Amino acid sequence: MIEQIHYTTTPKYNFPQIRENISLPKKFIELSLNSMSEIRERFFQPWIDLAGLQIERIEDQEDVIEVHGRGALPFVSSLEPIPDGSPVIAIDASSIKVGETENGVICAVRGAVVWSHRKRYRYLRIGPFPLHITEGNRREILSILGQYSPISSNFSLFLIEVQSRLCNALERWIQMMISSSVSDSIILWDGSLTSKLAGNYSDIITEILRKARNNSNVVLSFSKASTVRFLGRRITDLISKQRAPCLLEIDEQMLSISSRSLRLLGKIYVARLNDRGYTFRVDIDKALPKEIQIMAIRRLLGNELIFQGYPEALRLAHIFSTFTASDVIGIQRFIAREYGLKVVTWPSIRKALFGPFGTGGAGD
Fewer CB within a 10 Å sphere, N or C end of the chain? Predict the structure, then answer.
C-alpha cells in the first residue's frame, strides 16, 4: 500500500519570503528576451528527444576520486530519527534543447523548489526561460553569468556547455535565495558539493553554504552516481548490505584527487537510509562540526519521507524541474507564435547518405 502524499502549489504566504536582490532572474529574463529577439532567420526545427537532451550539470562530471587506507572506514549505525518538525527544502534545475535555428539552438531552463513540513509538500517552479544560444552570443551569455572561462571549440559541444552553465546559474541563484531566506531547515541539493569550474564559481558555492550556516540551516547534497572508489569498488557498494539506516564516513585525508581544479566543499558520507532502498553518496557542508552533520541526517530521517533510500522532497524537485514532452511542445508552440517562427525540418545529410545506418553525432 502506497502512502497518500499531499501535493499542493505554494501560496505566497506559505513560502519563505526572499530578502536578497533578484538580479539573476532579471538577467535571465533579459537574456531570454534579447536572445530570442535576435533570431534573424524566421525558421526553426523543433526537437522532442527527451532522453538525449536533458543536460547533465557540469559540476556533476567529476574525475575519479580514490580512497586510500588500510584500516576500516568509520561506520555509524545508530541513526535514531529526530522528529523535531524541521522543514525540509529541496532544490533542483534542468535544461533541455527545444529546437534548432540556422545559427544555433533554442533551449529552455527551469528550476523547482519543494517545501516539506510535517510530510506535507508544496512546490514552486521558476521558469521555463527560453534562450537562443549561438556562437555569436555565447561570450556575452557567459560574461553576464560571471562564468566566462575556456570552453570547447567544437560547435556542438560548446552549445551543450553553455546550456549546462545556464542551468547551473539558475540553480545556484535558487540555492542562494533559499539559504538566505529560511532558518533551522534541512536544505537538499542534487549532486555533490564539489566545484570544478574556473573563476569565482567555487566562491559562489562557498558563499551559499556560509549563508545557510548563518541561518542555522544544513545543506545535504545527494548524488545518484559517484566517482569515488575504494579499492576499485564504488563507495556506494560498501554498505549496500548493511542494516539501515546507517552511514559510512569518508575521511578527506584518505582521498586521492587527480584534478587540481576540483574542490571538495562537503564532507563525504555513504548513506543507506532504509532497508528497501538504494545507497547514496551524501555530501554535508564540511565547515559544520561532525556532530551537527550526523544530527542533520537524523533530523532528515525524522521529518521526511524516504522513498527507496532517497528523500521524497528531492525526488519531487527533480520531477517538477524536468521537462516532459508536453512541456516541450507547449514551449515550441509559444516560441513559434510569439516570435513568428516557421517550423521546418532541416535535411539530414547522414540519413540521406546512410539511410537507417546513419547513426552517430555531428562531426564524425
Answer: N
